[in-house]
Amino acid sequence: MIPKVIDAKYAHDYVVHLRFADGTEGDVDLGQELYGEMFEPLKDRKVFASFTVHPEFHTLCWPNGADIAPEFLYEKIKIPA
């Protein structure tokens, strides 16, 4: 089953506090994940903080079309670095 992000709040820098449908929640630092053409604009913290939770795909998405797989986000919470 694919995890579903149901709430996301900007914390600071490139850190987002996520809550999943199964009750799992925690902070995810995405600073090291912002590479590649779609993610380069997100290095601007103001742009990074403009994410929303996609209503159909239940993951973080940005106005430029970038998104991150919910499975990846879930694992970053379950197995912190």
Can you walk through the features of this model?
The structure is a single chain. The protein is of the alpha+beta class. The protein has a domain at 1-30. The protein is 16% helix and 28% strand. It has two helices and five strands; from the N terminus they run βββαββα. It has a three-stranded antiparallel β-sheet with strand order 1-2-3, with helices on one face. Strands 4-5 form a two-stranded antiparallel sheet. β1 (5-12) and β2 (15-20) form a beta hairpin. The longest helix has 9 residues, at 70-78. The chain is globular and about 30 Å long. The N and C termini lie far apart (23 Å). The mean pLDDT is 95.
How much helix is in the residues? Answer: 10-25%
Number of helices: 2
Mean pLDDT: 95
Strand order, largest beta sheet: 1-2-3
What share of residues are in beta strands?
A: 25-35%
- Work out the radius of gyration: 12 Å
Structural class: alpha+beta
**Low-confidence runs of at least 5 consecutive residues:** none
Number of strands: 5
Distance between the termini: 23 Å
Query: What sequence of helices (H) and strands (E) makes up the elements?
Result: EEEHEEH
Give a short account of the largest sheet: 3 strands, antiparallel
Oligomer type? single chain
**What is the overall shape?**
globular
